[in-house]
Amino acid sequence: MMLKGPIDRTARLAAALAALAAAACSTTATGSHPAAAPLPGTDACVFMSSVSDWVVVDASTLIVYAPLRKDAYLLKLFEPVPELNFKQRVGFEDSDHDGRLCGDGGDYLVVRDDATPMRVPIVAFRKLTPEEAKQLLPPARMPAGQGANGQGANSQSPPSPPPGGKN
Fold first, then answer.
1. Sign of the torsion angle spanned by Cα atoms 148, 64, 38, 80
2. How many other C-beta atoms can be found within 10 angstroms of the C-beta atom of residue 132?
3. Which of 18, 42, 52, 120 is the most buried (most CB within 10 A)?
4. Residue 10: φ, ψ to 5°
């Protein structure tokens, strides 16, 4: 049975739009999005009991130290955690119960606020060299009032002589 009139045109328009949408969804990875840079380090796992500290690099990246400060690991999250560097109640969940923290998506970063805990999958956990860790660390911040010479704004230092060497 052949449809004619406005219904036929509507059906053809809907079919054309569906085909166009399907074609738009089938873009390749080399489309408008650049390929993500490879993560530094090598895949690794650590026993959760050996985690001693961590530093927030950005909303989805931490450097974890286990067992010592010289042993740095990159931890990458599935999605960003807003204001992660201000969260005080952060922990790790070992969902496969092997006691290890790994980056295979089976372990989680858990952020506990006043509301419901947020569980974010850990998608990468990589051993870093000291140089890789240093490159990833955020720049050190000077305490308020500190100048480039390490002295506060109110500290007394001898005045510098005027140009020419005479007062």
1. negative
2. 17
3. 120
4. -65, -40
Separation CA 125–CA 91 (nearest Å)? 15
Structure tokens at 94: 């070992």
**Could you tell me which residues are beta bridge partners of residue 94?**
107
Q: Which of 98, 96, 40 is nearest to 72 (CA)?
A: 40
Q: Name the residue type at position 84.
A: L
Structure tokens at 69: 């400060």
Report the pLDDT value the prediction gives residue 33, as an integer from 0 to 100. 52
Question: What is the DSSP code (8-state) at residue 89?
Answer: -
Token output for 156? 């007394």
Per the structure block, which two tokens stand in for 108? 């989680």
Q: How far apart are CA 61 and CA 50, in angstroms?
A: 19
Per the CB < 8 A criterion, the answer to whether 54 and 63 are in contact is yes
Please tell me the distance from the alpha carbon of residue 66 to that of residue 73, in angstroms, as a whole number.
8
4-37 pLDDT, tens digit each: 555 555 555 455 445 444 444 444 444 455 666 7
The two tokens of residue 150 are 């390490």
